[in-house]
User: Fold these one by one.
Assistant:
Number 1:
Amino acid sequence: METQQKVWFVTGASKGLGLTLVKKLLAKGYRVAATSRNVNDLSTAVGGAAADSFLPLAVNLKSEESVGEAIGQAINQFGRIDVVVNNAGYGLLGSLEELSDAEARENFDVNVFGSLNVIRQVMPHLRVQKSGHIYNIASIGGFTGNYPGFGIYCATKFAVHGFTESLAAEVKDFGITATVVSPGYFRTDFLSAGSIGMPKNEIADYKAVRQSQEFHNEQMAGNQAGDPEKAADVMIEVAEAQNPPMHLFLGQDAYNGAYAKMDAVKTDLESWKALGTSTDFTA
C-alpha cells in the first residue's frame, strides 16, 4: 500500500495539535476522518479540503454509539482505517480538594473513557484487517505528576499510559501497534480559557495551586517551547516506521521530566531496597 493511501482517524481535530496534524496529513495526500463536537467549527478550521480525502464528523466521544457511527462512516467512505489518534481531551487545573466529584469525573469521561470508546469501536475493524496503529495522546503529566493543581488531569493521563501499555501487549498478535504520546508544553491553545477547566470553588489556602494557575495563565500560555507543526511531522514519521515505539515523548521538557521521574524512582528504590524487599515469605 502506498504511504499516501493510509487513512487516519483523528479525534479532537478542530484546534490544537489535532488540527495541525490533520492539516499536515491532508497536505501530504493522506485521507483523514476527523472528529469534533461541532462539525462546522471543524470544517472551517481545516478549510478547503477535498471531499474525497477529508471527512469531518460531529462526535460525542462520551457516547459509544456516536463514536461507533463515526467510525462506520469513515470506513464506508475510505474503506479502512490505518492510524487512529485519540487526541481529544482537555486540561483541568485545581487541587484534589477543590475539584468536585463531577468536575473530576468529567475530565475522566473525556480524557480516558472517550479514548476507550474509540478503541472498543475501532478494534473489530483493525483485527479483521490485521493491521493498524493507535496513538493515544497523553502528556508528560501522565508520566510524572509533580505539578501542583494538575492532580486529576495527571491521573487521567497516567491512565492513558497504563491502558496503552496493556493495549500494545493485547493487540500485538493481530499486527496492530499502540503508542502513547507524551508531549511537554506545546504552543497551542491548550492553556487558553476555553481549553482548560478551573474549579468552581477555590480554596485560598492552596497558594502553590494559585501560583501554578498564575504561571500557566500569565507566563507559559503563548510561550511554550514546543512547535506543534514539528510534533505533527514526528507523529507522521513514526506512523510510517516499521517498528514504532510504545512510548513517544515530545519536546526537550518532556525528556527532562521523564528522566527526572525515573531518577527519583530509582533513588527511592535503591534507598529503601532492603526494607522494601523484606516482605516475601521466608523459604
Number 2:
Amino acid sequence: MKNASELTDFYYKTLYPTLQELEEDRKHLRHRIVVVGIIYSLVVVLIAFSLSSFIAQSPDFLFFIGFGYFALGAIIYKFLIKDYTTEFKQSVIKPLIHAIDDKLSYNSNHHVTEHIFTRSDLFSEPDRMNGNDYVRGNIDGTKIEFSDIHAEKRHKNSKGQESWSTIFKGLFIVAEFNKNFHGKTLVLPDTAQSTFGNLIGNWLQSNNFSRDELVKMDDNNFEKEFVVYSSDQIEARYILSHSLMKKLLDFKNKSEHPVYISFIGNHIHMAVYYDKDLFEPSVFRSLLEYKIAMEYVKTLHLAISIVDELKLNQKLWSKQ
C-alpha cells in the first residue's frame, strides 16, 4: 500500500493533466454559480418586496420566505455542481483509490448498508440513511468496506410536525477478521469526563444504562480520549492491548475528529465523525492547492491504514 506521501505524488504527477482540465471547469462553474446566485437572490428580494404589505401584517411569513430561499438555493446549487462532482469522483477519487490498492472497487453512488451500520451498535437505529463513495475490497487478506454515511432520526412534535436530527455523519469503516469476539466491546469518545470533569464524568459513564459494563483502562492518555464499554471485561482488556490503544489514539489524533469503534462478532466497525461530505470537490477552492489535495489523500489513507495497523493484532487475537 502506498503511503500518504506517495499518494500525494500520485495526485500531482499522474493526475495533474486531469486536474488542470477540471480546474478550468471549476472556474467556469464558480462563475456560473455566482451569476445564478445573484439573479436568484434578486428575484427573491423582488418577491419579498412585492409582498411587503402582507409581510407587515404577518411577520412570520418572512421566516418562510427565508427558509424557502435557502432550501431552494441548496437544490439549485446541487443541480449546478452535479456533473462536475461526478467527473471529479471518476477522474480523481477513483484513480486515487486504485493507487492505494488496485483490488479495491469504488462506486460513488453506493454506501455501507444500514444493516451493518445498525450491527455496529455504535449509534441508535436510524430512521433514514444515505451515503456515497463506497469502497470495497481485500487488503492483505482482510476484507474491508467503507463509505460516507449520513444517518438520521425522525421526530414528531405534539402538532404532528416532522423534523430530523443527525445520528451520525462521516466516514464509516468495517473490516472482517478471522477472529470471533465472544463479547461486544465499544470504544467511544470520552465526552462525559471532558465536559463535566472526572468526578461527575465517571459517575455518568458508570451509570450509562444504555451500554454494557464500563471498562477502566490503565492508559491515562487513552482514558482521556475514550470510554470503553463491554459485555466481557477480560476480552475487552485482551483486545485493547497497550499497542492497540496507542494505535487508536494515534488514529484519533491524525483524524482530528471524534472516533467510535466496536468489536462485534468477527468485525471491527469504525466511525469517524465529520461535518461534511468527505470526497465532494470544493467549487470555491482550487484543486491544485496542496492543502486540498492532502485532505482527500489523508482521508483515504487513514481509512485504509487503520486496517493495516489492526492487522498487527490479528495474530494475537487468533491465539485466544
